[in-house]
Amino acid sequence: MQFSVHIPFVELLGFELQRFEGGEATIRFDPRPEHHNSFSVVHGGASMTLLDVVMAHAARSVELSMGCVTIEMKTSFMRAAKGPLVAHGKLLERSATMAFTEGRIVDADGKLCAHATGTFKFVPRLPVGKSTQALNTVRTD
User: Fold this and answer.
1) What distance lies between CA 43 and its chain's CA centroid?
2) Which residues contact 43 (CB under 8 A, 6 or more apart)?
3) Among the four 4, 5, 38, 89, which has the fewest Cβ within 10 Å?
4) Of 51, 63, 77, 48, which is closest to residue 5 (Cα–Cα)?
């Protein structure tokens, strides 16, 4: 399944979208050595990015004409994450302009590695090409 928007950082990390519908999203991540920290496990920043993206996609799955930007995110790490990883995002509640979500990352054994909650603001999507350009700016007011 292809991501519906071009996100260079997501492409760099190699995330694979597996589900994107009905307020839910699933993304697979096969971390490479350059995604590890000094303990040879997945860096927390990579895990937080995975959670951010899966929760945003869960929110966007019910409002395809809109984009969404992260307003707030809280993350808890339960155990060291070793790939491959699967992230699940779920839309808990929404208003006309806001989405309230949760996400979790599990390892290959199905063990919970991290959990997050996030708040996202729906914003109009603007036309863009394959590169970042002036039209790619987003109003957040």
Assistant:
1) 15
2) 35, 36, 37
3) 38
4) 63
Q: Is the peptide bond before 33 cis (omega within 30 degrees of 0)?
A: no
Q: Evaluate the CA torsion angle 17, 23, 73, 67 in order and state its sign.
A: positive
If DSSP states are collapsed to H, E and C, what string results for 61-117? CCCCCEEEEEEEEEEEECCCCCCCEEEEEEEEEECCCEEEEEEEEECCCCCEEEEEE
> Dmax over Cα atoms in the chain, in whole Å?
44
Range with the lowest mean pLDDT among 22-36, 45-59, 102-116, 127-141?
127-141
pTM above 0.85, yes or no: yes
